TrEMBL record:
<dbReference type="InterPro" id="IPR043129">
    <property type="entry name" value="ATPase_NBD"/>
</dbReference>
<protein>
    <recommendedName>
        <fullName>Heat shock 70 kDa protein 12B</fullName>
    </recommendedName>
</protein>
<feature type="region of interest" description="Disordered">
    <location>
        <begin position="1"/>
        <end position="45"/>
    </location>
</feature>
<feature type="region of interest" description="Disordered">
    <location>
        <begin position="58"/>
        <end position="106"/>
    </location>
</feature>
Length: 732
């Protein structure tokens, strides 16, 4: 059996110094002078990475204080993963509590931050100059949309020519596609709400495809790259108009928002799409940040004044209005105020924290519920005073419970009335008309309210009415009369007349899932004493959702909505780009580790795991944890491993990474454990020393789990030169 490399396992803090190899050998507390050996799993049958384990029961986790000094604190004995008999690593622990001193922001090497909020239903960008971080500038008015309204987001709609070339994005794409001749439209490639595909695809790769409205497929990476390239060109042109001397290449830090519940492959996919779009070069990955949407909202909410918040928990007004009506009325007033203010594209934020945050005590907890078009993301944060940093208390959770669920319910209703086969045929034969119908429903969906008594009219395109008559031999009015129930009627004006009960039924499944998920989260032991529940995202504008959340949780905490609720994530993403250290502690969404060989113990390890190698008995497939699910990991903390090539002249080391949603995993073959990625180390050719003892080449790899993405870096210990290291989640 060939050996590719071997490693010394050691978790350390960023910037700490590693004990010299010779001192580690002398420090081993093992009566056997020869250290125990384990072997890590690498790709290829029968191949293992040889790992040298020096397990010291007194092993420490090195931590970083807020002033950058190293501090050495014993890991708690009860910490997950501290099983010395199975050679698990000492777990990462959060950094020490910040000292009572001001938190200095790192000096920036860029002139401007541009954030792109890439949403399921709508998208936009905003920017801020690093020398004036209190001013956030929204994008210019988009072309198209409602007359007289300065649209600060545009539909996430992409139109490609029949040949697959980029044509347009946003309102322009939607309107152009709408105006195409029905027969011509069948050849054009129109994409909408395509972001959901990245979350729902379990085997996401660089070759994953998306289906256009006409049924034709295009590689997803191409679709996302087209969209991001559009935003880049739009933003860069606006920046150059404002600052002609701006050097685009190095002056811009880009930020792209993604749901917090997205797994590592989806985050890497967005990064690869950004590379393909030319936002940044793969050689300068630090120029692009991936921001988690509820985190971004949380960061922005820190800055809000009381008059920029709508408290749904407030008592009804003295004029006798019911609480439900006062909620709807107050939000309508705020929305009108926002509409008027949108003609000014610059928003000023507090230099410190807003009034609401100033009232909060150290340790106060709150939930941010990001209710978007495709997903609902929940994150639990704790405020750390006086620095204003944030600490995640429970791993991000959520699911596909966004506003798109209401659209799907409407499509199901149409299928019940007109026949599922007809709706499928109409979508395929008249794709542009189907888009028109969904746009008409979207407008009425936004007008739905929990105590509305009058019906809502949804316009049916003429092509729908005509196509149904030709396809079925009868008119749509007949179909409506024959359908069960009396909740949807035909209007003489050529519209579907939906009763309030019918509209409520469309919202109920999606809203119920959101309420159930928030309720489940509030019951977690780590989520006690919640003071605020912030509703953000486009779906949070819905009076239906607002009322449901307030009714369910208003007695437990204050339910609050920022006035510019649809722009909260976008503005927070800009602030995150200006200072990515605001979120100091995160929770690991999964358990990550590698497969190793450990000394076989009779009665403990199963016989089928026995491997005899060089006269010794080893247990195969042991899951060695790097970090456990829901484990607190401070920003900047790393896990280090030292890999040593087993062959002279070896140029590459590849190690498999495994993940699991639970913490009680023992073997990489256990149910729920899957290979999720690889770490690759590219080794430069070096002159090999003549002495066999000094010939061993040590490559020290550092893995960081406390950021929004998993990161890896490596160094050749002997030469102190950087080793090309990469972590890949898209090649499985």
């Amino acid at each position: 059996m060939g050996l590719d490399c071997w490693t010394d396992r050691q978790p350390v803090g960023m910037g700490s110094k590693r004990t010299p190899w010779s001192e580690q050998l002398r420090a081993v507390r093992n009566p056997d002078p020869a250290p125990e050996r384990t072997f890590a799993d690498v790709p290829g049958p029968g191949r293992y990475v040889k790992m040298s384990t020096f397990l010291d029961p007194g092993m420490h986790t090195l931590q970083i204080g807020t002033n950058g000094e190293s501090s050495q604190t014993p890991s708690p004995p009860s910490s997950p993963g501290m099983h010395h008999e199975s050679f698990s690593i000492a777990p990462l622990t959060p950094s020490q509590s910040p000292r009572n001193e001001a938190r200095a922001q790192r000096p920036t090497s860029f002139s401007v931050v541009v954030a792109i909020d890439f949403g399921t239903t709508s998208s936009g960008y905003a920017f801020s100059f690093s020398n004036d971080p209190e001013a956030i500038h929204m994008m210019r008015k988009w072309e198209g949309g409602d007359p007289g309204v300065a649209n600060q987001k545009t539909p996430t709609s992409l139109l490609l020519t029949p040949e697959g070339a980029f044509h347009s994005f946003g309102y322009t794409a939607r309107d152009y596609y709408h105006d195409l001749d029905p027969e011509e439209a069948r050849d054009w490639l129109y994409f909408e709400k395509f972001k959901m595909k990245i979350h729902s695809t379990s085997d996401l790769t660089m070759k994953t495809e998306l289906e256009a409205v006409n049924g034709n497929k295009v590689q997803a990476l191409e679709v996302f790259a087209h969209a991001l390239r559009f935003f880049k060109q739009h933003a860069v042109q606006e920046l150059k108009d404002q600052c002609p001397s701006l050097q685009e290449k190095d002056a811009i830090r880009w930020v792209i928002t993604v749901p917090a519940i997205w797994k590592q492959p989806a985050k890497q996919f967005m990064r690869e799409a950004a590379y393909k779009a030319g936002l940044v070069s793969p050689a300068n990955p630090e120029q692009l940040l991936i921001a988690l949407e509820p985190e971004a909202a949380s960061i922005y909410c820190r800055k809000l004044r009381l008059n920029q918040l709508i408290d749904l928990s407030c008592k009804p007004l003295a004029n006798g209005l019911a609480p439900e009506l006062s909620i709807d009325s107050s939000f309508r007033q705020a929305r009108e105020q926002l509409r008027r203010s949108r003609h000014s594209r610059t928003f000023l934020v507090e230099s410190g924290v807003g009034e609401l945050w100033a009232e909060m005590q150290a340790g106060d907890r709150y939930i941010v519920a990001d209710c978007g078009g495709g997903t609902v993301d929940l994150t639990v944060h704790q405020i750390e005073q006086p620095q204003g940093t944030l600490k995640e208390l429970y791993k991000a959770s959520g699911g596909p419970y966004g506003a798109v669920g209401v659209d799907l319910a409407f499509e199901t209703l149409l299928g019940q009335i007109f026949g599922e086969d007809f709706i499928a045929t109409f979508k395929a034969k008249r794709p542009a008309a189907w888009v028109d119908l969904t746009i008409a429903f979207e407008a009425r969906k936004r007008a739905a309210a929990p105590f509305r008594s009058n019906p809502l009219n949804v316009s049916l395109p003429f092509s729908f009415i005509d196509f149904y008559r030709r396809h079925r031999g009868q008119n749509v009015e007949t179909a409506l009369k024959r359908s069960s129930g009396n909740v949807v009627k035909w209007s003489s004006q050529g519209m579907l007349r939906m009763s309030s009960e019918a509209m409520n039924d469309l919202f109920q499944p999606t809203v119920s899932q959101i309420i159930r998920h928030i309720d489940d989260l509030l019951k977690k032991p780590d989520v006690k004493g919640i003071k605020f529940l912030f509703l953000v995202g486009g779906f949070a504008e819905s009076a239906m959702l607002q009322h449901a959340v307030q009714s369910a949780f208003g007695s437990l905490c204050r339910v609050i909505i920022p006035q510019d609720v649809g722009l909260t994530i976008l503005k927070g993403a800009v602030l995150f780009g200006l200072d990515p250290t605001i979120v100091r502690v995160r929770r690991s969404p999964l358990t990550y580790g590698v497969g190793v060989l450990n000394k076989f113990v009779e009665g403990k390890h199963p016989k089928e795991k026995l491997l005899v190698k060089e006269g010794k008995n080893w247990c195969t497939d042991i899951f060695e944890k790097f970090v456990s699910v829901d484990q607190s990991v401070a920003l900047g903390e790393v896990v280090q491993r030292s890999y040593c090539p087993a062959r002279v002249g070896q140029r590459k080391i590849i190690i498999n990474i495994y993940c699991c949603a639970t913490d009680d995993v023992v073997y990489i073959t256990d149910p729920g454990v899957r290979k999720c990625g690889t770490i690759s180390l590219e080794l430069d050719e070096v002159d090999e020393p003549s002495s066999p003892k000094s010939r061993r080449r040590e490559i020290r790899a550092s893995m960081q789990f406390g950021d929004t993405e998993l990161k890896v870096a490596a160094m050749d210990v002997r030469t102190s030169k950087t080793v090309r290291a990469a972590i890949d989640f898209l090649s499985n």
